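Researcher: I'm comparing several assemblies side by side, and this is the next one on my list. It has 1012 residues spread over two chains. Same procedure as the others: predict the full complex and return the structure.
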Amino acid sequence: MKLRRLDWPLLGAALLLSGFGLYSLATLAAPANLSSVSVTSAHVIKQAIFFAASLGIAILLLVPGYPVTRRFAYPLYAACAAALVGLLLFGPYTRGARGWIPLGPISLQPAEFMKLAFVFAIARWLSFAKDLGSWRALAAPLLLAAVPTGLVFIQPDLGNAMLFFPVLLAMLFVGGAPRRKLAALVIVAIVAVPFVYQFGMKPYQRDRLTGFLRTEKDLSYQQLQSVAAVRSGAFSGRDLPEGFNHSIHIPDRHTDFVYSIVAEELGFLGSSAVLLLFGIFFLQAGRIALRTADPYGRLVVVGLTVFCGLQVFINVGMNIGVAPITGLTLPFVSYGGSSLLTCFLSLAAILNVGVRWVPTFSGRDMDRGHVSIRGFNPSPFYWFRLGAR
Amino acid sequence: MERSRVLIVASLLLLPLAGLEARILWLQVLHPGGAAGDLVNRSIDLAPAPRGRILDRAGRVLAEDVWSFDLHVVIEEFEKRPSARADLLVLLGRPPAELDAALEEIYRRIEKLMSQRPERERPKIFSRERKTPYPLFKSITKEAAYAIETRGENFPGLVVREGLRRHYPYRDVGAHVVGYLGRASGLKREQFQELLEKGYFSEGFDELIGEEEVELLARRGLFDGTMTPRDGVERTHDDRLRGHPGLIILERDPATGKKNWVGLAPPRQGEDVTLSIDIELQKDLAAILGEARGEDGQAKVASAIVADPETGAILALQSSASFDPNAFIPPTRSDQVDAYLKSPQNPLLNRLVKSDIVLGSIFKIATSIAALEKGHVRPQDSFLCAGRYRPELPGTNCWIWNKHGGMHGEVKLAEALEQSCNCYFYALGDRMPLRDVAEWASRLGFGERTGIDLPAEWGGKLPRPDEKRYARWRPGDSYSLYIGQHELTVTPVQVLKMICAVANGGSAVTPALAMGGPPPRSLGLKPSTLATVREGLKAVVHGERGTAHQTDLRNVDAAGKTGSATFNAREHKSHAWFAGYAPADKPRFAIVVLVEDGGSGGHTAAPLAAKIAARVMAEAPPK
């Protein structure tokens, strides 16, 4: 492994996003900020420790080559599925859902780790699949996606449950499944949505899901407050006159509504910066996916990036009133150990693929003559030339 | 191919980012908040919902919610200006001590809230709560409210909110029927928690603002002021009566004092409940009972019920030991409540459904019905009353022997009821097993709750000789039971239930206040049984030797039975009872009167019953 092959812009974007997260937490914990009184400096310290630990783990994980994950993809998937089943059977209720395993001072969220295991398993299956043209060949990945979707849905954690299927579609698409088959799957999913909505959901879930479709006046309380906070940030951040307080109280502000803090404190400049950093993240990840010669590595990068991207859209969208409240966190920014750790594990996997882009000289890439070896361009602006080969 | 597909996926990820960017551009640059009108302090609050009214049978209001102006204060803003205190005191015309006490109460609530949270959160909670409106005074004058609302800048930190206050226009008349309310904070901790968990205070709020926020509202004491039912119909029909409060966001501009609401959920008004009570009759009943005197000439606690014997619908239910339910509604008149609690008459106790009291001779009706139904005696059978039944048992003397040294001679059943002859019923008892009496007493409703829609009804006590604890049952105990003494205890509504059955031709009714109770259920009495008992009861009032004949009752077309229930044999103290109905042949009203420590039923309870019967008969034209 050569350090200069590391994708520094990608790592930098992730670190800056985590910095935004810590900054938001710190403003929320400030004594004058009353919008979430239960958040104190203890939360900031805890999150800083999580951040340092996650970063450390991510760096260590650059040492072994990512093909290790291919070898252990199925056992990892089985372990996570077992953890989810065990959670449903024996798990304690934490705020109405059985999504967390309490372990002393921290609690783990198996659904987060399932995302990684899911991507590894699908990528492994697709990289060895001979022919994706038949329905029979697509049955296995569909089943691999249905298991975590169902298990997480029952918890109930609607937000995380609905991520798996779109990620599967993206991976099948990149993995070379025929467009017609994928289009059929999308249509089936669209048809299924109203049924799940009507029969599979509790009334409050339906309310949350469709709340944002109503006019601005009818937004849910949380979203109303959040949008008000975002607007109050204006161009360069909120400047509170004497006598006013941060009384825009938003429940779960440090987890689900962290984006509204950035938007309120730093205004349009800050909220744009966060989006820009995510943009850099996606571009860099896309570059790695393009450049690598290993289909497994490419699929892993695509899967993890799409997971991350969907969470960004839904979370930011719900903060600014254009997406439903689903309880999804904002990657790298939101408070929470499991979420942060998963983000850095994903980052480590993507960077690892980037570092080891040397072709494996196997699989279909060989056949199609796509093997090409090019040097690493260290210019910080090279992502403008996406796809230039 | 795969590379082009990667490019497509990458652009699909970047496009929504551009959309989000456009949205924040719109929100933060093109339509930014934080301008003068938009920058406000927000707090979440309840929108009060009126409780349903309680109406009498003619639609007259017995209890209703009236709107009042409540004054709330934001401590931080209020304390910032030194003159605010003096201005407010002048405006309200209240003593400074009252304001100090109210402010101290708010600080106590804030401290309580802080004590429930970890140490490190407390400073923030303190500053947040100082910026949150807290109730200061309830029911301020309209003038003061207008002054504060229109000149907000002169009264920093003061917020006028419309609030609701329960009002009982008839005060102590019918107080035991209507009941009263109390603040939720006055409940026991577990009761409060239970209601909170059931969503009594916050039904539907979870979905709007999330469970966590509801918990926060509860911690902040927002539900403490919710009025919860304590007694009477307010409690039994709370499900229908109670309103469901709405949720609002209160926005305040601390610079100008301007306020605005954002509604999250509209309040829903409670349902009205119509009672079978006739409040005019109830009023007259209260006046009649207020004049009750015992045989010793002292004022006594008298209670009475008037009901429709066919349905069990209660027309009036009153005790002379009553209370004003308005005293319990905040601002509570605590001196008056203390007086109620300390009064030896115990006015808060609804003795008509909760008292545990000896019945006396009225129970002879049950004994008679049991004997006739079981065929142990025929109406024409007679026994000899020689004044003393079994001389070796001094407790088995007839009352006429104890009082006058006399005797009743040969008496039949109807005559025995008329003269309340004890010896007859002792003789009857010797002819039949005790369990037959217990069975019929139970069927007539003794020993169990009648099911009246008033809270915490007491079921009385009916001794059942087959129970184990009556293993040492002595013959004297049986004799006492036949005439309604001994361990038998009842409530006046149970007596009402029995007398209704006699009056309506043998159906057990469920005494009820809200119209539309369960239908009467036939007991399957023989017509001859009823005829004999009713003949006896009519003779009590109209017969030459009837125990109630020496009263005004004989001028009314009524029937009934007196009772003098000894509760202190050594001092010869007894409760005076009367249970009857009018008119005697086609009863339309059932009446039960109880004068506690009143002495003889014929002398103290029957005259009251006479006045009551005269009153109800005067209004109702004879059919």
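Model: For your comparison table: Residues 258-291 of chain A form the longest helix (34 residues).
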